[in-house]
Design brief:
490 residues, binds 2-acetamido-2-deoxy-beta-D-glucopyranose, golgi apparatus, Rossmann fold, globular, five-stranded parallel sheet, membrane, 11% strand, Exostosin_GT47, 12 strands, transferase, transmembrane helix
Length: 490
């Protein structure tokens, strides 16, 4: 008598043998079989054991097959490059007149939750977020990235969780340049010793900064030229082979701009819809708004003109963020309250080309008005539509000497329908320009992190393609590329 269990087993065994046989036949029928894993094409031919490739293919979880070409390996850096900086947060405040940084570390870098806002914000998705903590938020988002791998040979990109901006902020006001440059140097030496480095000489490595790229590109080391701001980190040979995502990119082609963090960090898709619906219905009594501090020391800045114009126009609301009142603008409730009530928000360049306020205002459904292409159009290429007339107003004024525009008249020229279309486009962009709460996962929306990772993976794949075709990967990589950031008006 045959035991039924043995019979089932033997049926399954035969079935397995049959399948294996068929697979072998299929594989051996072809002279060569190619497969593309993470953008690298592997070929197997008759002489090789076809199971070698089977094994490699099944080593990645089936549920993650959509991860092909998207695997990221995260370097396990010594804690002095990231965690220790948070632990010793009191050192991050030194030399600045900024408030104590320590409270902003809470909630994985989102900062303290905003509990009550008297109806200005929606419940449960808002935090007092400090821009410099973007490095921490991004790192935490990366820890939950769907396609992480511990096998660096599978990875399409290598993430370096160095808190570059927090690190350099300890020494930006220190005149000893050796000290200012030391941790960047330490980091690249650590990276270059790792086996992952040699695969592409760092061209698949990327990192994130909550400070502008220029803070890592000190131009001169002498007092004659006067410009000694920042570290030399991005001019180190290893660093030039890596890509950096920063809130503002430089004109070098290995820097990419990603949005500044706002205070809105939804944990669910419904929180995004709820917010979009709220601001869509908002009553907007002010035609335009400017929020910022006067900068009398920046003589060429058009800020002074804008403030003057705003003060003299009954259609404009001006929020003065100068030192006396500075705290007002650090509080997201005060800032969003005004943006929610404004149709247009003026965004002249600040101390640098970009400002966090661009994203705070768009988040509130306020249509941005730009004066310089470097403020957004040539920066956030992965996040904002190419066609700028769809979501913004452009009033080109390069220099204060050219100031002869009547902003109010220009903005009055838009019909109600045109304004609604612009605003609707801005509201649609919201998910792309915000960072979701790293402790949760959105199901339907892709946020700024998702778009940043996608852009980075595509960029690295382009470099890989150049290498595959025998080209020189340094061409157009670490150059100062005058094409990308010509700041042209077209
Ligand atoms: C497949 O895995 C083997 C051993 O695990 C390795 O030697 C080989 O290089 C891998 N092949 C590919 C195409 O990744
Ligand atoms: C938001 O929270 C406040 C106070 O906790 C509560 O009074 C209010 O009803 C909440 N609003 C909504 C829409 O849930
Ligand atoms: C990588 O290894 C660490 C430590 O062994 C483990 O906690 C983590 O889950 C692994 N990650 C993946 C994506 O396999
Ligand atoms: C800068 O700091 C380093 C390390 O602390 C020290 O060795 C060096 O003498 C300092 N240089 C100057 C110019 O003070
Ligand atoms: C100072 O600036 C000039 C012109 O920008 C440059 O040619 C020169 O090399 C700089 N000096 C130093 C020591 O970097
Ligand atoms: C940078 O990349 C190039 C290849 O494009 C390589 O020759 C060079 O050695 C790399 N630099 C460093 C410091 O690894
Ligand atoms: C850009 O958008 C505007 C407004 O939606 C539209 O009228 C125009 O045709 C678009 N231009 C291009 C080149 O798509």
């Amino acid at each position: 008598m045959e035991n039924p269990i043995t019979r089932i087993c033997s049926h399954q065994l035969w079935f397995a043998i049959l399948i294996s046989f068929l697979l072998c036949t299929i594989l051996l029928c072809f002279d060569s079989l190619s497969t593309n894993i993470n953008g690298v094409t592997f070929s197997v031919n008759k002489q090789q054991n076809p199971f070698v490739i089977m094994k490699n293919m099944t080593s990645s979880d089936d549920a993650h097959s959509s991860c092909a070409g998207r695997y990221i390996y995260v370097h396990d850096l010594p804690t002095r490059f990231n965690h220790d900086l948070l632990h010793n947060c009191q050192l991050l405040t030194r030399g600045t007149d900024k408030p104590n940084m320590c409270p902003y570390m809470e909630n994985q870098g989102l900062g303290p939750e905003i509990e009550s806002s008297h109806g200005v914000l929606t419940n449960g998705s808002w935090y007092s977020t400090n821009q410099f903590l973007l490095e921490v938020i991004f790192h935490h988002r990366m820890k939950n990235y769907k396609c992480l791998t511990n096998d660096s040979s599978l990875a399409s990109a290598i993430f370096v969780p160095f808190y570059a901006g927090l690190d350099v902020s300890r020494f930006l006001w220190d005149s000893n340049l050796t000290v200012r440059d030391s941790s960047g140097l330490d980091l690249v030496q650590w990276l270059a010793r790792k086996p992952e480095w040699k695969k592409m000489w760092g061209r698949d490595h990327f990192l994130v900064s909550g400070r502008i790229s220029w803070d890592f590109r000190r131009q001169y080391d002498d007092d004659i030229n006067g410009s000694s701001w920042g570290s030399k980190f991005r001019f180190l040979p290893e660093s030039m082979n890596m890509s950096m995502l920063a809130v503002e990119a430089s004109s070098w082609n290995n820097d990419y701009a990603i949005p500044y963090p706002t205070s809105f960090h939804p944990s669910k898709d419904s929180e995004i819809l709820q917010w979009q619906n709220k601001i869509r219905l908002q009553n907007r009594p002010y035609l335009f708004t400017f929020t910022g501090a006067p900068r009398p020391e920046l003589e060429n800045s058009i800020r002074g003109k804008i403030i003057e114009h705003c003060r003299s126009s009954s259609a404009c609301r001006f929020i003065d963020c100068s030192n006396i009142d500075g705290e007002k603008c650090d509080n997201p409730i005060n800032v969003i309250k005004v943006f929610e009530k404004s149709v247009f928000c003026l965004q002249p360049p600040g101390d640098s080309y970009t400002r966090r306020s661009i994203f705070d205002s768009m988040l509130a459904g306020c249509v941005p008005v730009f004066f310089h292409p470097g403020t957004a159009y040539s920066q956030y290429l992965w996040f904002l539509p190419r066609n700028r007339t769809k979501y913004s107003v452009y009033i080109p004024v390069r220099d204060v000497k050219d100031w002869d525009v009547n902003v109010e008249r220009v903005l009055m020229g838009f019909s109600e329908d045109e304004v609604s279309a612009l605003r609707e486009e801005v509201i649609k962009l919201i998910p792309r320009i915000i960072y979701a709460d790293p402790r949760f996962k959105l199901e339907k929306h892709e946020d700024a992190f998702d778009f940043a990772v996608k852009g980075m993976l595509e960029r690295i794949e382009q470099v890989r393609e150049v290498i595959r075709n025998g080209g020189d990967p340094s061409v157009g990589f670490a150059d100062e590329n005058h094409y990308k950031y010509t700041f042209s008006d077209n």
